[in-house]
Amino acid sequence: MNNADLEARNRNLLAELDATVREAFDLVLVQMENAGHRIRAQEAYRTPARQRELFLAGLTKRVTGGLHTRRLALDVVDDAHPDNPSPQFMADLAVVAFRQGLTTGLLWGLPRSLAKERRDCIVFGRATQLAALIQFKRGWDASHIEATP
Ligand SMILES: [Zn+2]
After folding, report:
1. pTM of the shown model
2. Which of 17, 53, 74, 120 lies deepest, with the highest CB count within 10 Å?
């Protein structure tokens, strides 16, 4: 995707988010770009019908009420590696999102013992160490960002 298309896509999807959280998500995209990543917004708002469709397809664990249906979540893609985001991309995303008061699904589903060390890396901004850890084990939705209401 060229830069103009990427920028337009990111603007359009940010506009779907709730106005109270839009700036935080916008800053995540800006800071990821500043860190040298090509970040692409993939999906923001979902209708309840689409959420149900994804649930039935096994692509989400939430049948209703996901934060996408409330305009409080954004899925992103590493545009340089759309099918296989680099560990550094996912680690930087988790750290940058945390600094904006947002959360990614990087730790979702991990046993508590594994989550603890990774969470400390996020909180203390140790993205390089985090990238090394998540090469081996990470949660199931690293490219999902949400604003916890
Ligand atoms: Zn999502």
Report:
1. 0.93
2. 74
- Please check whether residue 126 is in contact with residue 74, taking contact to mean a CB–CB distance below 8 angstroms: no
Residue 6 CA to ligand 1 center (angstroms) comes to: 19
* Ligand 1 centroid to residue 98 C-alpha, Å: 16
User: What tens digit of pLDDT does each residue of 51-71 get?
Assistant: 888 888 887 777 666 899 999
Q: What is the pLDDT of residue 54?
A: 86
Which one-letter amino acid corresponds to residue 36?
G
Ligand 1 centre to CA of 69 (Å) is: 10
7 alpha carbon – ligand 1 mean position (Å): 20
Residue 142: CB partners within 8 Å, gap ≥ 6?
A: 85, 90, 93, 94, 104, 105, 106, 134
CATH among 2.60.40.420, 3.20.20.140, 3.30.470.20, 3.30.1380.10 for 3-146: 3.30.1380.10
What ranges do the domains of the chain cover? Answer: 3-146
Side chain identity, residue 49? A
